[in-house]
Every structure is written in C-alpha cells, then in structure tokens.
Amino acid sequence: MPDESDDFLSRHFQTSGVDLTCKVEELGTLAAPPDSPNTKLYQAMLGTVVRMAQADRNRWDAKIMLQTLRELEHAFSTLEQFKRRRKVTVFGSARTPASHPLYNLARELGASLARHNLMVITGAGGGIMAAAHEGAGLENSLGFNITLPFEQGANATIQGSNNLLSFHFFFLRKLFFVKEADALVLCPGGFGTLDEALEVLTLIQTGKSPLVPVVLLDQPGGSFWASALTFLQEQLLDNGYILPSDMRLMRLVHSAEEATEEIAQFYRNYHSSRWLKERYLIRLSHALNEAAMQQLNDEFRDLCTHGDFQQQARCDSEQDEPELCHMTRLAFAFNGRNHGRLRELLDLVNQPHNWAQSA
Predict the structure, then answer these.
(1) CA distance linking residue 187 with residue 105, whole number of Å
(2) Taking burial as the number of CB atoms within 10 A of a residue's CB, which of 57, 101, 296, 328 is the most buried?
(3) Phi/psi at 156 (nearest 5 deg)?
(4) Are residues 262 and 219 in the same domain?
C-alpha cells in the first residue's frame, strides 16, 4: 500500500512568496511527538487543508470538511480509552416494544456479551438498542447517537454518560459502527437494519473492512433472517451474483448464548490481521501444528496469488503494536478477493486440535 503522505510531499505550495510546503512540514513536525511514525501523515493532512484554502471552495464545502475533521478527532479521542476492549455492534429495530420477545432476547444478548467482557455498541436509541444496553449495563455499553433537527434522545442506560458519542453526519456514524466492531449482531429491523446488514457484508466481501463475525439473531421459530437467507440463496447465489463461500460470511442463531459463542469461537485462536506490503498476516494466539499447516496448503492454496502458507515471528516492520509482538503470524500472499473462503480458513485455525502441542 502506498504511503498516504506521498501526494503531499511530492507537491510544492507557494503563496505570496511564502513557501507553504516548508511551513506545513514544520508545523506537522512541531505538533507531533518526537519520532512519531505518523508525522508525514499529519503533514499530508495539513497539506490537504492548504489545497482546500488555496482553491477557496464554497463555505458549505469548507464547513463539511471542518465538521468531519472535528467529529473524527473527537471520536478517536473518546474511544481511545476503550481501545483494547473487544466490542460488538448490535443493530435492530428502534420500534421493538419492551413487551416483545425480541426485546427480551436483545437484553439477554447484552448481558451475555458483558459476561464475556465484550462491550455493546448501538445507535443509542430505543427498542433493540435500548434492550442490548440494558442487558450489558453502562460500563459495558457505547452509544453512537445521531444529531437530528428534531429531538433524538438516547436510551436510559447511556443518556448523559461519557460512553455516548453524538454524530452530525450519518456516514461518520456508520464508519464507527464498523470500525470499532470486533463482531456484529443483527436483530430483525427495518430499512436501517437491512441497510447496515448489506453494507457490512459488502465491506467484508470486498476487503474494505476486516473480517469479523456477522451474526443474524432471531427468536426461536422466527422467520425474519431465514427468509432473508432464502432470498440471498435463490436470487443472489443461484444467479451467480455472489460466490458460494460468501454465504459463510454470516451465521444464523436463535439465542443469546449461541450468538456469544459464535463470537467467542471466532477469536479462540485468531486475534487479528493486517497487510504488510504484499503479505497478509494473521495473528494467532497459538501456533499451528504441522498437520494443520499441511491442510492449509492443500485445501486453501486458491487464496494465494503465489507461494504457500508460512508461520513466522513478528516482522521488524511491525512497530505500531508492540503488545502483540509475541504472537505467531500466519503469512501468505492473499489474493484479496475470496473472504468467504478466508472465513473457512479461520474456522480451521480456531480448532484446538490444529494447534501445536507447545502452545
């Protein structure tokens, strides 16, 4: 992946005899901590603002940019305190009444996730969102509210707390729903829930978002997600619009315990992943045994553009997360396309019988 700062550093800005490039580089260096690996990125951000100012775009464009930067910085700052806690975003209808079985199911879900030290993220509203937060409790809840022209109050659990973030723009709110999520649970809901479901699946399928568990939760005997899966099977898969393995990106369950177990199982050995130059690295809590490595190379070679799967220690190029340096890396030249197959691979590495005895 190219350095995001390359564009700025390759350009030279000068206005009224003032060398803005040098000024921007100087300001970025002064603002960042000494030896920060992000200094060039901050300089590039400032360079973007300089280009905006030189073009002197209309006031509405400038206000959008300002509001976006402010909301991003505030969200990053607020969420930093929860950085090392895994989080689950829960979607579902805000119109679900407290008397409905789905409300009770969402409340049980929140409580179950909290018992596993998982934070619950919702849109901070009523219905399913209120139920999930009610079950999880404030200390295990985060709310991402949306500021609207009319009153948009948060639910009783999250209202008035430091665990509530308000967004002016829907697109930024949606960004953080996915960015902060180590898993997503979708309960029955309306257009908004379906929009989130399809967007999340699209982002994961295309590799624009990390692979995480997507759990479809319905009450026992419920047909909401079963009908949706039938549509996907008959209209998308059978017509060749998606791959068979894409159906593996989501799982249907009918209890809070099943939903929580599906998430816990996903992280049983798998920890996280990242791209490092042309290699895809999967961080593992336990190294794999020789039989598992052979199985990977026999059954999942279609995921590699070339070469095979290799286990390795932390690379010297990985300096941004030193607390993860002890983990084994499963490295390969991922084709970046078939994320449903990647999910099948992770199911394999999460099986304890595939771990090395020394683990």
Answers:
(1) 9
(2) 296
(3) -65, -30
(4) yes
